[in-house]
Amino acid sequence: MRIRVIGAGAAGLTAAFELVRRARETGRDLALEVVEKAEKAGLGCSFYAGGMIAPWCEAESTEPIVARLGAEALDFWTRIVPVAEPRGSLVVAQKRDRSELVQFSRRTSHFEVLDRAGLAALEPDLGDNFDQALYFAEEAHLAPRAALAELVRLRSAEPNVVFRYGVDAATLADNCDWTLDCRGFAAKPDLSGLRGVKGEMMILRSADVKLSRPVRMLHPRHPVYIVPRPDGTFMVGATMIENEERARVTAQSLVELVNSAFAVHPAFAEAEVVETGSDVRPSFSDNLPRIKREGRRLYLNGLYRHGFLLSPALASRAARIVFDDAIFPEVMDEDRGQRRAS
Ligand SMILES: Cc1cc2nc3c(=O)[nH]c(=O)nc-3n(C[C@H](O)[C@H](O)[C@H](O)COP(=O)(O)OP(=O)(O)OC[C@H]3O[C@@H](n4cnc5c(N)ncnc54)[C@H](O)[C@@H]3O)c2cc1C
User: Fold this and answer.
1) Which end of the chain is more exposed for a tag (fewer CB within 10 A), N or C?
2) Helix ranges, 63-156 (H)
């Protein structure tokens, strides 16, 4: 079976990984090529992700399917491709925003409430600033760029897998048995309803801040999360803006991110700004992911702000559509429409 994956972001690389796995499990021959327009993998929207594998926290603002599919990512990123740190995640709010924490706890599960001492035991740096927190012990986090590099490394080692960089798939003949289109936002002209939701982030370095797990700080207007990276830096993110401007970080957004980071830990005021960046999250109107099938072409898209959280579930389903002729009404476009109609 000749298969082409277009796009080497979170969607394309997890799909490539799962295609090889399923081919092996079913004893099928596979010749796989991953075609990427950029000079290397992972430079699209996936480059800017925070990397929180937080299905239970995300349940606060999404439909239950996100937590259900996202739970699969915990197994994928901690056991199958073990690049994630299974250290849980924390949710805090300043005293004046205590009601936000109460609301968050009502809409989520799989957490325990920590008092100041409990929080300080986990994150000594936060004990002075917050007297309560929600601790989601089963969640994890990863460094997105390293995670994607690991997928490339694993699949580059396979004799039947070729990575082609600097190639626009539109220039290639359609001569494969299957094509998995994982172009993210670039697929907008072919996917009705796909839109971009702008996100801006920054990376800070501070020797005075010590955090071992992601921290979300709730706020009525400027919620923020901080994800520690293995190199001692911190990803601070992310804005959510309904426009499709890909690469411009505004002064206002930077001020908001810095102020929020400062509210989590005052030492961020002295931190070095290592990087700022922005892209648009490929999203459908309901912010849920889709596999759209057109003959022997599958579009894996709509990962919204859940690229690393949902791509493993989408990828494993895509591999089963290809090799087992399976159908998955919960994520497949046509069936979703039928279900809604009924
Ligand atoms: C600031 C920010 C923070 C985020 N935080 C998180 C987070 O904490 N957790 C999480 O799970 N998600 C997060 N996300 C969302 C996540 O980044 C996206 O959902 C995810 O990256 C989408 O992945 P993708 O593979 O669909 O798209 P992309 O990563 O954009 O990959 C698409 C690839 O296709 C390639 N391509 C396009 N056209 C062609 C062509 N014609 N030929 C060949 N190749 C082509 C592109 O070059 C690109 O490499 C965040 C996003 C942003 C912007």
Assistant:
1) C
2) 64-75, 98-107, 116-122, 144-156
Ligand 1 binding site (Cβ under 6 Å of any ligand atom): 6-12, 35-38, 43-46, 48-52, 168-170, 182-184, 186, 199, 201, 237-238, 279, 281-282, 303-309
Residue having the nearest C-alpha atom to atom 51 of ligand 1: 49
User: How far apart (Å, rounded) are the C-alpha atoms in residues 85 and 331?
Assistant: 28
CA of 44 to the centre of ligand 1 (A): 5
- The overall pTM is greater than 0.90: yes
289 Cα–ligand 1 center, Å:
13
In DSSP terms, which residues pair with 336 in a beta bridge? Answer: none
d(CA 161, CA 32): 5
Could you tell me if 253 and 199 are in contact, meaning their C-beta atoms sit under 8 angstroms apart? no
- The amino acid present at 219, given as its one-letter code, is H
* Structure tokens given for 170: 């539109």
Reference 182, options 292, 84, 285, 76; nearest CA is 292
Please say if the pLDDT value at position 273 is more than 90: yes
Question: What would the mean pLDDT of 4-12 be, rounded to a whole number?
Answer: 98
Residue among 5, 45, 74, 235 to mutate when testing ligand 1 (max atoms within 8 A of CB): 45
pLDDT computed for residue 334 by the predictor: 62
The Å distance, Cα 155 to ligand 1 centre, comes to 19
Per DSSP, the residues of 318-334 read: HHHHHHH----TTTBHH
3-state secondary structure of 190: helix
| Strand ranges in the chain using DSSP code E only, listed in sequence order | 2-6, 31-36, 52-53, 89-93, 112-115, 132-136, 140-141, 161-165, 178-181, 195-205, 215-218, 224-228, 233-237, 272-283, 290-294, 297-301
Q: Euclidean distance between the first and final Cα of the chain, in Å? A: 36
Phi, psi angles (nearest 5°) of residue 224: -145, 155
What does the pLDDT look like over 208-236, one tens digit per residue?
Answer: 999 999 999 998 888 899 999 999 999 99
Compute the distance between CA of residue 300 and CA of residue 304 in angstroms, rounded to an integer.
12
